[in-house]
Amino acid sequence: MKKKIFKPYHRTRLSYWNTIATEWDSIKSDKAVVSTFLAVTLILLLVYAYVYSNEVIYDVPVAVVNQDATKTSRDYIEMLNTSAGIKTITNFTDLQEAKHAYYAKKVMGIVIIPKDFEKNIRNGRPTAVSTYADASNMVFYKKVLGNVSITNGYFNAGIGIKKSMAQGNPMKAAKQNQNPIQAISTSLFNTSSGYATYIIPILTGLIIQLVILMGIGILYGSRKEDKKIRTDFPRLLHKGGTIPVLLGKASLYSLIFAVIIPIQIGIVFTIFSIPVRSSLLTIYAFLIPYIFSVVFLGIAISSLFKRREESIVFLVLISVPSLMLSGLSYPLEGFSHFYQVLASIIPSTSGIEGFVKLTQMHASLFEVTQEWLHLWGLTLFYFIIAAASLKIRAHNELKHFKSQHSISLFNHQK
To answer: Which residues of 140-172 are buried (b: 16+ CB within 10 A; e: fewer)?
Structure first.
């Protein structure tokens, strides 16, 4: 009885460790895989972090067409120029000249101060400051429109305070009358509203998926070309033989990223002052089903490729939809039902969401349970597909081997 139980266990254990050793040897000996792990996981992240290291855009050039040319209009321009992020250029005589500068990309917005600006203000008549912002670039658009709106608010408040003081009210009372509601705005998590702090954690989560899929695709493509899947993992055709192979692969990639993640967080996040508000242990616990699901997904889709080059092209192409469906460029709630379902079956969607919550929002593992359980569900789903894929491929290789052997035997007999 003990022998019957121990023998399958012993074979399973040997197959598990053989898979880890075989996969590790394949990774080490394949320069394309090694360069993928090194270049994408660290160098690419460093490059992105450096590109966005300024975090916030300053000195956005804005054309100001001052049609009033009074002290009040000049005071308005000075206030606009002192706002964070805008650099006003006032040497434009009319709108046509400012438009030429805009189309030449010398300015990213136009502000027009109308004629009789000062006169209308003094007579209590409404006046309008027109703003044209480059909506094709949301960063510039937000900066120009936001700063003009803030300047208008402060300028209007100043006019109201002066009128109240002219009626005999003290400055303190005039300020209170002008601003009865004091707005207190607090930025949570990304306190600097910086782009690098926003995008780098998302890219870190996406890079995990991209690197694993590319690495598995390259290795699987090589084995498929050389007909080595069955020989590298000899117990695939045995009953339950796919389980230790799949678990061995997933365990190895988890160990690799157990080393890579601290390097990414310790080097890139530290150099560029990107906060990490969770412990490594919690991050590891969350990433286990993420890595497992990506590994099994990679094995499942790798059966589509006949050559390693095909896998690289395909996986690079799907990285763009993965990025879009992650919620980086547009909130998931804004997608149609079809794309929401499609996003839910891509591991990076839940993986990125949970990773960002842990590292940036100080969430606990309990608070990302929904994403964590969803990843375990994807792990089981892709495990079944990957197991079937490996079985089919091993059977096909065995049939090919037998047919080749039969042909060579027939030729020998002739």
So the answer is: bbebbbebbeebbeebeeeeebebbeeeeeeee
> Exposure string (b/e) for 208-234, b if CB count within 10 Å is 16 or more?
bbbbbbbbbbbbbbbbbeeeebbebbe
- CA–CA gap between residue 80 and residue 121 (Å, rounded): 18
One-letter amino acid at 317 equals L
Could you tell me the pTM of the whole model? 0.79
Structure token digits, residue 180: 């009865």
Q: What is the per-residue pLDDT for 188?
A: 75
Q: What six digits make up the tokens of 367?
A: 């608070």
Six token digits for residue 101: 């500068």
DSSP per position, 328-356: SSS-GGGS-HHHHHHHHTSHHHHHHHHHH
Which phi and psi (to 5°) does residue 109 adopt? Answer: -170, 165
Q: Which two tokens stand for residue 167?
A: 């009626």
User: In 167-269, which ranges are continuous DSSP H helix?
Assistant: 171-178, 195-226, 229-232, 242-263
Domains and CATH numbers, the chain: 8-52+193-413 (no CATH), 60-178 (3.40.1710.10)
Sign of CA dihedral 288, 294, 298, 299: positive
The CA distance from 201 to 323, in Å, is: 13
Reduced to 3 states, what is the DSSP secondary structure of residue 132?
Answer: strand
Radius of gyration of the chain (CA): 31
Mean of pLDDT values over 78-87: 80
Q: What is the mean pLDDT of the segment spanning 98-108?
A: 87
